[in-house]
Amino acid sequence: MEVLGFAAPGEKQALAPWRFSRRALRADDVQIDVKFCGVCHSDLHQVDNDWGGSIYPMVPGHEVIGIVSAVGPKAVRFKVGDRVGVGCMVDSCQSCEPCGQGLEQYCEAVPTYTYNSLDRRDGTPTYGGYSEQIVVSEKFVVRIPDALDLAGAAPLLCAGITTWSPLRHWKVHAGSRVGVIGLGGLGHMALKLAKALGAHVTLFTRSPSKEADARRLGADHVVLSTDRAQMKAVAGGFDLIIDTAPNDHDVNPYIPTLALDGTLVLVGFIGKGKDPVDTVPLIFGRRSVAGSIIGGIRETQEMLDFCGKHGIHAEIETIKIQEINEAYKRMANSDLRHRYVIDIASLRA
Length: 349
What we know:
By secondary structure, the protein is of the alpha/beta class. The chain has helices at 41-47, 97-100, 150-153, 159-169, 185-196, 211-217, 228-233, 280-283, 297-310, 324-332, and strands at residues 2-7, 16-21, 29-39, 64-71, 83-86, 89-91, 112-113, 133-137, 142-143, 177-181, 200-205, 221-224, 238-243, 258-266, 288-291, 316-320, 339-343.
């Protein structure tokens, strides 16, 4: 079927309307009428080919929220009218050890991503949620609880699960001491989720002006990371630090703030940092620096259900799709509070 979307025609080029074909329903597919799509910082990286391997024309979008409009003959998990979402993946090998554990994001054969990837069955490019409709295998579709606002739920499919997964893996619970570096799209979700799990939560920031917002979102304490006295005062204080900063930065000042056996987990920056990690505080505190990426489908559903139970949404600014290029500019300049979400109804305006 032919659908309308917004696509980047080439590297670092502005997105513009583009008509393209979605595949016909396979037996296990779900067809979704897209209602909202979140805008992730990685969309900008992919459009600009910052990580290499970008495929054009590119239709970004991996925080997809919509309503089921058709199902394949062997699809049994969803019915027409269901509220559903699609995150960063639409397929995986389904046979390796990580896939068997429900950790499809670590598929040894590499997952098929929602856009800028190649379909495992026919080799065609995948196109994301900046479009009217999307067709996805039911295994990679999640249910949106009725308690969640559809627009506010969109960033949960990336920013939410990216921070939820390390909170669960490192077993954060009531009384855990959690630090969060950065108050952007990922950081504000880490605050909300850690607080709802019962943790004592601290925000590390370079901006004193963010304290009031951080406390509103769940922070019990705010530390100015450029203030040596404040950093020294929290030495040895954290079981887990979630580092959401999207750009290269020095992690060394944060390592001494970890408790014995504490872990700093990177979820924002992808690439080789210019500052080598000092092993002294690692060795003498049995501390760790780790990484984590999104989450599996089962874990994503768990996170959505938790958010539905606790009334957790992303902090969003809803935009028309015609505003996407300006939104990218603002995002590149860190000129936004938390997360953009596109109202896909604007495609037909």
